[in-house]
Design a protein that fits this description.
- The protein is mostly helical and about 190 residues long.
- The protein folds into 2 domains: about 80 residues, Helicase, Ruva Protein, domain 3; about 90 residues, no CATH class.
- The radius of gyration is 18 Å and the shape is globular.
- It has 10 helices and 2 strands; from the N terminus they run αβααβααααααα.
- Strands 1-2 form a two-stranded parallel ribbon.
- α1 packs across α3.
Length: about 190
């Protein structure tokens, strides 16, 4: 019996959980000094493609923990390949642009999701992980609201339903609940 575990770049929702776990374990080993990631560092770690999979994430988080002088891990505490990843792109065999580059281009009005993501995806120029990372960025920006996320990605309102069907069929739909702010539970 073969068990297939998808690569970390296809499990974006697991990355923040693993980061938290590795930070907690490192703090425990070092006598309890808890450290947190700045939003920029967290975003870079979430977008990085992790060719070394979970082991690479663990090593990066541990190194950043030791490099950060205070309680906050900043992007400059991350290795060069993680910091420079959004400029260099996810340089895979097809020389694919990075999700962050594509996302920024759409948000800045240099193209639409249809032109810069869907069509290249259907022509196999973009992979599922890239599409999922672009959706992740939009959901992060909109607090998990898909309608607003798709508007941000220049999907017209009349195309919302069709785009949601497309994303679900292609395995690119992310759970919006992970992006919603937790209620305080007072009362």
């Amino acid at each position: 019996m073969e068990i297939r575990v998808p690569p970390l770049r296809e499990r974006l929702d697991d990355i923040p959980l693993l980061i938290g776990w590795f930070l907690a374990k490192t703090a425990e080993t070092e006598g309890g000094l808890c450290k947190a990631l700045s939003p920029e560092a967290k975003q870079l770690l979430t977008l990085y493609s992790y060719p070394g999979n979970v082991r690479e994430l663990k090593n990066i988080v541990q190194a950043a923990y030791y490099l950060a002088p205070g309680r906050m891990i900043q992007e400059e505490n991350l290795p060069f390949e993680v910091r420079d990843w959004d400029q260099a792109g996810d340089a895979g065999p097809d020389n694919e642009a990075s999700p962050l580059q594509i996302y920024r281009a759409i948000v800045q009005g240099k193209g639409t999701f249809e032109e810069l993501v869907k069509k290249p995806f259907l022509k196999r120029r973009l992979g599922i992980p890239t599409v999922r990372q672009i959706i992740h960025l939009a959901l992060t920006e909109t607090g998990g609201r898909y309608r607003e996320a798709l508007r941000l990605l220049k999907v017209p309102d009349h195309g919302y339903y069709a785009m949601m069907v497309f994303l679900k069929r292609q395995g690119c739909c992310l759970d919006f609940r992970r992006y919603r702010k937790k209620s305080t539970g007072l009362g």
